[in-house]
């Protein structure tokens, strides 16, 4: 009867208790999970740099392609 009562009062095993303790701690600290912020910043900056570099190199060609595409839609194509 004692072990049955203990199982009802304390139904969690050690792994579940550990998980519960981590959840309670995370909520108590504010629930914020910090990610890899410097990695995301680096990816964003590198992407912006790559787009800028490509734009500087291919600006004239991009303008030409855009004009040709618009002319093809409007009907002013040669």
Structural notes for this entry:
- This protein has 78 residues and is mainly alpha-helical.
- It has two domains: 1-33; 35-78.
- The chain has helices at 2-9, 14-29, 37-74.
Strand and helix layout:
Elements lengths: L1 H8 L4 H16 L7 H38 L4
Using brief descriptors, characterize the structure shown:
single chain; 2 domains; 3 helices; 78 residues; mainly alpha
Q: What overall geometry do the principal axes of the alpha carbons give? A: elongated
Percent helix range: over 70%
If you compute it from the alpha carbons, what radius of gyration comes out, rounded to the nearest whole angstrom? 30 Å
The CA-CA distance between the termini, in Å, is 95 Å
Biggest sheet record: none
**Number of helical stretches of at least 4 residues:** 3
Nearest-integer average pLDDT? 75
Helices and strands, in N-to-C order? HHH
Number of strands: 0
Structural class: mainly alpha
Number of domains: 2
pLDDT < 50 stretches:
none
- Binned strand content: under 5%
